[in-house]
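hey all, quick one before standup. I had two proteins in the batch that finished overnight and I want to keep them in one place so we stop losing track of which output belongs to which input. First protein below, input sequence then structure tokens straight from the run.
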Amino acid sequence: MLRKIISDGLDGRESRLGFFAESKFDEGLSVENIKVSGVAKVVLTFSNGAQIIKGSADDVKAFYRSSDTPVSIVNVAKRIGSNTVQSMGNMKVYSFPMQEYQKVVKCKLALDSCFEDLKATLLAGNKVVINCQEGMHRSVEFFEQFKGRLGI
């Protein structure tokens, strides 16, 4: 089955970007909707209400505030530093610093360390938020590799 990919145009109207094949990852969750907003924000919504949200630091800043809903955040915005994981209430923040030229290898290594936790977040019906500074390079790479590991 094919579903529409919807984009919020800059003028506020929705426009069709194309179609994607409906797919399921191994636990049977299916992608119900993909929404693209502005230049960099993408939201995948699953059949259980879980979401993967990819965007720039500005697109996702609201998720860094405390929330009643559990959320896992993957921050690949920093270019130098050490990998860290911080838990704050219902929020878990994974920080994986990387340069653009390292993004393929660094995203693979990052996913090696956090994939099962992120997958469990989705299976529980919660959100996984992925961001870099502009939402155009490092977060896109992580997002694509994450989707690939999920089989979507």
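OK second protein, same deal, sequence then tokens:
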Amino acid sequence: MNCKWLMGDKNGVIKKDSMKYISISIALAGIFVLSFLLIIQSPTPVSSPDSLEGLKDNQKIIIRGVLTKDSPSGTNRIIYIDTGFEITCRKCLSLENYRNKNVSIVAFPEKYENKTYLYALEITLSK
């Protein structure tokens, strides 16, 4: 049994339009799989600033503690946690409702000039 008719004309020649649809389908499937893997990646819990050394750049981490202070820095806010973390929040307006309360912060580390900076992705109250 000859299966040339699956992707081509009756002579088995693959048309250019068929190749476009196949390549677009494969590319979209790959994007979907990578997006799914990125979404289901769970953050790594971190308890102290010393434990940031073994982490990769842009790896999601979760930090738990009491938000002691926050201060504006240009268009950002710097968040201070009682465990010694200093986290930059790029689009935070006011964190008065979170002060002196237990928070969970999902963040990612980024190294610049041999110093690790943390950038917040999500801030929630924890129990």
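Flagging for whoever picks this up: The CA atoms of residues 64 and 104 lie 5 Å apart. The helical segments are 16-40.
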